[in-house]
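Example for tutorial group B:
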């Protein structure tokens, strides 16, 4: 498999960004290669293209599978496992939102709920609980909102995001209308 200069540049960038997103560099590069390649790839092709060990590829595939970011495919007449990313970029975004919520928001919400159920021992604890309540409420709104987004079709999501600043204008108009 030959990687074009454009692909190589993007793969390198995904590797750099991977660490900022909570993934390691190799995993970011692997995912970029899979996303940017039209045909499904097997582990040997990934290893050869990225010049990384087959064991690193195997570990990376397990991690990408655990995030539900790649799909296993079989090619008739070939015993190897092939992997691809969803063609719909919105499906990838929805999957990332779901997985990050499971790994980051849900445990934090549980910790907040536990803290809110405790009896405050003093004024400092009361203040702490109020701050935790505010954070909890915000995170709950984000969770509800993200659930709504997950259930929208890709076309509706695209339309929503294209509204951009128009959403703010609609809210301003609503406020003007209701204040009269």
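The residue assignment follows.
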């Amino acid at each position: 498999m030959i990687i074009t200069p454009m692909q190589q540049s993007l793969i390198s960038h995904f590797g750099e960004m991977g660490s900022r997103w909570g993934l390691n560099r190799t995993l970011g590069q692997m995912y970029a290669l899979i996303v940017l390649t039209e045909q499904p790839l097997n582990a040997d092709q990934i290893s050869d293209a990225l010049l990384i060990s087959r064991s690193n590829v195997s570990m990376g595939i397990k991690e990408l599978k655990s995030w539900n970011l790649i799909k296993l495919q079989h090619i008739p007449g070939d015993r190897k496992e092939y992997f691809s990313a969803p063609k719909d970029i919105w499906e990838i975004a929805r999957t990332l939102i779901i997985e990050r919520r499971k790994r980051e928001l849900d445990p934090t919400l549980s910790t907040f709920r536990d803290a809110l159920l405790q009896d405050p021992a003093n004024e400092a604890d009361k203040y702490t609980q109020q701050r935790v309540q505010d954070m909890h409420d915000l995170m709950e709104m984000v969770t509800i909102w993200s659930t709504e987004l997950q259930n929208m079709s890709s076309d509706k999501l695209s339309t929503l995001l294209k509204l951009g600043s128009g959403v703010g204008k609609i809210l301003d108009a609503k406020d003007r209308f209701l204040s009269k």
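The mean pLDDT is 93. Compare this with the pattern of hydrophobic and polar residues in the output above.
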